[in-house]
């Protein structure tokens, strides 16, 4: 019997969770092949974040100025063309290190390395034809839920819209609370409110069921604890991930 009103529950297949686990990033990455591409929020350069990442000879780092502007389709296409045109073939993995915008760039570049044409033609729902390069999300700011979503939001020639596809979800995510411990209080609050709103919206989603509802409800409880009771960075990072999962699986909007 075919059931309507339900769909396959989607979630990042592999997770590393805990303070300091970013040092184990290599455990999630493909063991063979060429170098990896690290897309890193440029604000982290002054924080020496590269010292905490397992960057090897042959890897490449692309600094993305997330605090200056939102990611665009033109930026993604230019980075894709440069990486695709280098000698040695495609990277074995794309790693996004930063907040939601930086992780969206990593997701978009990953899928555009394997799908022809401009990224603007894939802004929409389920338009990607091929899986992207293996990709890992490493959030350094919690709240957007980008680490769990199937969307890479980009400014296009005519509109701001997401590349929405199963192919644009991360293959793995590192949830290391030590990476968000130094976030300024105001930024932590505003980003955390994104998570709170995601959870509230998810509970009203047209595809909400008991499984996705459990993620939204628990995420909401954790957000409340963080805001009202001084909850931990682990709790905020968990809430962000749960909010992202609930948005993906509740059909909001």
From TrEMBL:
Ranges of residues in domain Alcohol dehydrogenase iron-type/glycerol dehydrogenase GldA: 14-176
InterPro entries for the chain: ADH_Fe/GldA, Alcohol_dehydrogenase_Fe
Family annotation (Gene3D superfamilies): 3.40.50.1970, Dehydroquinate synthase-like - alpha domain (1.20.1090.10)
Signal peptide: none
SUPFAM superfamilies: Dehydroquinate synthase-like (SSF56796)
Record Pfam families: Fe-ADH (PF00465)
One Gene Ontology molecular-function label: alcohol dehydrogenase (NAD+) activity
UniProt KW keywords: Oxidoreductase
Protein name according to UniProt: Alcohol dehydrogenase iron-type/glycerol dehydrogenase GldA domain-containing protein
Source organism: marine metagenome
Lineage, top ranks: unclassified sequences, metagenomes, ecological metagenomes
């Amino acid at each position: 019997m075919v059931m309507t009103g339900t769909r396959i529950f989607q979630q990042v297949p592999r997770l590393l969770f805990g303070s300091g686990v970013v040092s184990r990033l290599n455990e999630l990455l493909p063991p063979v092949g060429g170098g990896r591409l690290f897309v890193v929020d440029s604000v982290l350069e002054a924080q020496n974040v590269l010292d905490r990442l397992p960057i090897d000879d042959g890897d490449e780092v692309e600094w993305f100025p997330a605090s200056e502007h939102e990611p665009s389709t033109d930026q993604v296409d230019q980075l894709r063309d440069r990486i695709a045109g280098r000698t040695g073939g495609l990277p074995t993995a794309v790693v996004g290190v930063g907040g939601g915008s930086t992780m969206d760039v990593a997701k978009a570049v990953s899928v555009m390395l394997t799908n022809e044409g401009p990224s603007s033609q894939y802004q929409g729902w389920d338009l990607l034809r091929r899986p992207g390069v293996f990709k890992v999300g490493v959030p350094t700011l919690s709240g957007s839920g980008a680490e769990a979503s199937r969307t890479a939001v980009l400014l296009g020639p005519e509109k701001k819209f997401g590349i929405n596809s199963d192919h644009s979800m991360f293959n793995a995510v590192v949830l290391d609370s030590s990476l968000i411990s130094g976030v300024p209080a105001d930024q932590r609050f505003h980003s955390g409110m994104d998570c709170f709103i995601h959870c509230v919206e998810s509970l009203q989603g047209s595809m909400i069921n008991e499984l996705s509802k459990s993620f939204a409800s628990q995420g909401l409880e954790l957000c409340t604890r963080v805001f009202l009771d001084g909850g931990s960075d682990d709790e905020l990072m968990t809430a962000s991930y749960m909010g992202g999962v609930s948005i993906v699986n509740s059909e909001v909007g």
